[in-house]
Write a structure and sequence with these properties.
single chain, 226 residues, alpha/beta, Rossmann fold, 2 domains, three-stranded antiparallel beta sheet, 7 helices, 22% strand
């Protein structure tokens, strides 16, 4: 289990960040107060993680890369998921949840297929043929705008680990206490400014200004990223 490093001043608080850029800047400043990270490589999960990763990359003076991961949606749901598909085709299924909601093998396969197609489309749209840098021997900092269940981040960690990084750090502005603990077991360190233990957790509750970024906004963010 990796260390969990948070900000006691922001613990259990809501609406502590103005927006994602403010959260990313605060997170970048916080990271720089910790022991220096050797050979850092920042990977952001689109869409919401891109502004966060952009600010962390600026703070550390490194380039921003993408870890394109998509939640596998529960049929007839626009938000809830039961797994995730990563940029390199790996699939992580929440078997307990899948069984609890009674999904058949066929329904799982269909949902995974749709998600894999979406991931490939986003790779083409966001990377435009640019190779993803190798994490081998690097300290990979994975980021998103928050951890609710933590399952999407776990999928990203699983994929990154296959490239043999030196260390894996997850750095996010906000997380539920349960997801922070879950993810920390799979990484070397988890850095999170705002950890909340309430049963009704929403990433959006950490932000005064919150909305879903569309693909055009992600491309604009990437155009101005280091």
């Amino acid at each position: 289990m990796g260390d969990i490093v948070d900000s006691p001043l922001l613990r259990e608080q809501k609406f502590v960040f103005l927006d994602r850029h403010d959260a990313g800047r605060q997170l970048g400043v916080f990271i720089k107060t910790l022991p220096a990270i050797q050979n850092p490589l920042v990977f952001a999960i689109p869409a919401g993680g891109v502004p966060i990763g952009k600010e962390i990359a600026v703070a550390l003076g490194v380039h921003l890369s993408l870890a394109i991961v998509r939640k596998i949606r529960i049929p007839d749901s626009t938000e809830s998921g039961f797994g995730a598909v990563t940029w390199d085709g790996q699939v992580l299924i929440n078997e307990r949840l899948s069984a609890a909601i009674g999904l058949s093998a066929h329904e799982v396969d269909v949902a995974v297929g749709k998600t894999r197609k979406n991931v490939n489309e986003r790779i083409a749209r966001f990377t435009r043929g640019k190779a993803i840098p190798s994490p081998a021997g690097k300290t990979v900092i994975l980021t998103d705008d928050g951890l609710a269940s933590g399952f999407t981040m776990l999928a990203a960690v699983k994929s990154i680990r296959t490239y043999l990084p030196e260390r894996i750090i997850v750095a996010v502005p906000t997380a539920s206490a349960s997801s922070a603990e879950l993810v920390s077991w799979q990484v070397d360190q988890l850095i999170c400014l705002n950890i909340r233990s309430s049963r009704m957790f929403a990433v959006a509750d950490a932000y005064k200004q919150w909305y879903d970024l569309d693909d055009h906004e992600v491309l604009e963010e990437l155009a101005g990223s280091p």
